[in-house]
């Protein structure tokens, strides 16, 4: 995480960035007050699930894409009373080429 620079200890002790630290980083990077960054994140936490609940895809350009897929449970597991398998939904994420490059560095 080079962009953390000398502030790495300020943000993370064990290479795990939590929600509050993430909001602080966004606040610093965007030049927002911490309060505004918290409001933004709270809105994201509401809006993203609403989009996915409606079965829509969320494409965030150079970040990646969130989507919902249907899948059936494995045979013999979680059958309903009629013997049919339950259908479930799964949230997926496909990283953009920009994020994929980060994992190759």
Describe this structure in words.
The chain is built from four helices and three strands. 1% of the residues are buried. The protein is extended. Helix 2 crosses helix 3. The protein is an alpha+beta fold and 105 residues long.
What's the rounded overall pLDDT mean? 82
Radius of gyration computed on alpha carbons: 19 Å
> Ends: how far apart?
11 Å
Which consecutive residue ranges, at least 5 long each, have pLDDT under 50? none
Total number of strands: 3
Query: Structural class of the helices, strands and pairings?
Result: alpha+beta
Count of discrete alpha- or pi-helical segments spanning 4 or more residues: 4
Major pleated sheet: 3 strands, antiparallel
Summary tags:
42% helix, 2 domains, single chain
Q: How are the SSEs ordered, and which strands pair?
A:
Layout lengths: L7 H4 L7 H12 L3 H20 L4 E2 L4 E9 L14 E9 L1 H8 L1
Antiparallel strand pairs: 1-2, 2-3
Structure, briefly:
With 105 residues, this protein is of the alpha+beta class.
């Amino acid at each position: 995480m080079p962009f953390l620079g000398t502030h790495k200890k300020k943000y993370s002790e064990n290479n795990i960035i939590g929600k509050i630290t993430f909001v602080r980083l966004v606040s610093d990077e965007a030049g927002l007050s911490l309060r505004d960054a918290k409001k933004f994140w709270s809105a994201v936490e509401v809006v993203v699930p609403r989009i996915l609940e409606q079965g829509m895809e969320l494409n965030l350009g150079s970040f990646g894409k969130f989507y919902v897929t249907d899948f059936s449970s494995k045979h013999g597991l979680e059958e309903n009373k009629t013997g049919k398998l339950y259908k479930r939904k799964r949230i997926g994420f496909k990283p953009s080429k920009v994020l994929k490059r980060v994992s190759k560095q």
